[in-house]
Design goal:
Number of helices: 10
Structural class: alpha/beta
Radius of gyration: 38 Å
Helix content: 25-40%
CATH class of the largest domain: Alpha Beta
Order of helices and strands: EHHHEEHEEHHEHEEEHEHEH
Strand content: 25-35%
CATH architecture of the largest domain: 3-Layer(aba) Sandwich
Shape: elongated
Number of domains: 2
Amino acid sequence: MTNWSNIEFLNPGFFWLLLLIPLVASWYFVVRKKSTATLTIPSIKGFNAGQSLLPKLKPLLHVLKLIAFTLLIIALARPRNVAVSKKIKSNKGIDIVMAIDVSASMLARDLKPNRLEALKKVATEFVNKRPNDRIGIVVYAGESFTQTPITSDKGIVKRTISEIKWGQLEGGTAIGMGLGSAVNRLKDSKAKSKVIILLTDGVNNSGFIDPKTATELAKDLEIKVYTIGIGTNGMADFPYSKNSLGQLQFRRQQVEIDEELLKHIAVETEGKYFRATNNTKLKAIYNEINKLEKTKIEEFKYYNYQEKYRLFVLIALGLLVFEYTLKKTVFKSFI
């Protein structure tokens, strides 16, 4: 079945000939009418009984020719259906692991509605922008856990991000554990580029892996680490306990992020350090990382052309044959 929305015309200049159609029609219905001989008689009462409809239909012959010529002009414009198929080839795949801090402080409300929920929204948008890369998720607090190994299934990755919540791991902030687990996910990767996005809102205070040791491992494996410190400058509402109904209680306290450590990790691995002080800044950071880590894509397009001018030619010839047949038979007496 022809998809007329994909029709293109190879020789559109022939459409200028359509301007002749109204001129030819005017000549026939105006000029030719004036040149037709007439007979004046005192009365036509004697002709009324045998009056035929055919003389009134005679202009139909000219209309058929005009339609036929219009179709021939369209055929000269060379209409054809274009079917385009695409094949995308990724020559430089990137494997990415997002190491996400899920300690209690990620529930702080300096980002809206809180740091963790703001991150989940932005991280999901980031995944949507990386259709050709494999992505894995590592979460950490006082310990670390691989939530999703690196995979090309973005549905799994986004579902994992949506299900991340506080309270699944032991309390604390083990930056070294989170970075170490992310490195472990990438150590056997065959990708030409390996990236870790490490996000935290605190200071390393737990775990049995020194962050600097994990940094050396990443450096030896040529893994680039982008570090993000999330949290406003100054004071923020932090959770500190639960009331009798199990609801979190918040109080104002100073935001503390080990920026020196995060900068060290980024510099040593040829990555970059960012500070996200609000929702807008957090989104801008992930957009920048997305631009910094470009996947080289080759797109091949295949064009399949189906000529459609033959249909217009056949219809036009059919109309001309029909017009000629009528002229030589039905309308012969009135020509």
